[in-house]
Amino acid sequence: MTRFLLMGAVLAVMAFTMPTKKVVLFNGKDLTGWKIYGTEKWYVENGELICESGPDKQYGYLATEQFYKNFDLSVQFKQEANGNSGVFFRSTVEGTKISGWQVEVAPKDHDTGGIYESYGRGWLEQIPAEKETILKPGEWNTLRIRVEGDHVQTFLNGKAMVDRHDEKIGAANGSIALQIHDGGGIKVRWRKLVLKEL
Known about the structure:
GO terms for molecular function: hydrolase activity. InterPro entries: AL/BT2_dom (IPR010496). By secondary structure, the chain is mainly beta. Helices cover 10% and strands 51% of the residues. It has two helices and 15 strands. The strands form two sheets. Strands 1, 3, 4, 6, 11, 12, 13 and 15 form an eight-stranded antiparallel sheet that branches. The chain is globular. It starts with a helix and ends with a strand.
């Protein structure tokens, strides 16, 4: 009995100390590991991933082929023109209809770092006015999203934005997906998409 208890304790320590797996989602060269949904533009330029409105001016998504349930994701973005976009997590896409949760990436005073549930409850967390100054328009910004179980945290340029527990999110699984909002005139640059699986 003592031996089994000791083995259990050793396994628990090993599980606790095992390094997290780091996944580079964007290789800086092409869209390997991603799938395009819709007719909007997704392309690579100078090592950066660019999303841009196409002639249809509709919603567009670029989603990982792999599902990621528990993770800590860091991504840099720079908005050009209208930067209305977002990063979805635990999402699934059919055509241009997405199910899941979006961490907003938008122009100043439009809740970058907040959480929106598409085709569901709408805004779960919007950003208070005093945090709208954290976004740096026209510059590179760092967005961090940590999701573990039902716990979601978002950070913009190192500042905490959202800290929420949500039962519905906790039950879900799916892809990481970048969004182009409808309406046209949107362009956002992305780089350094690195995910640590938890």
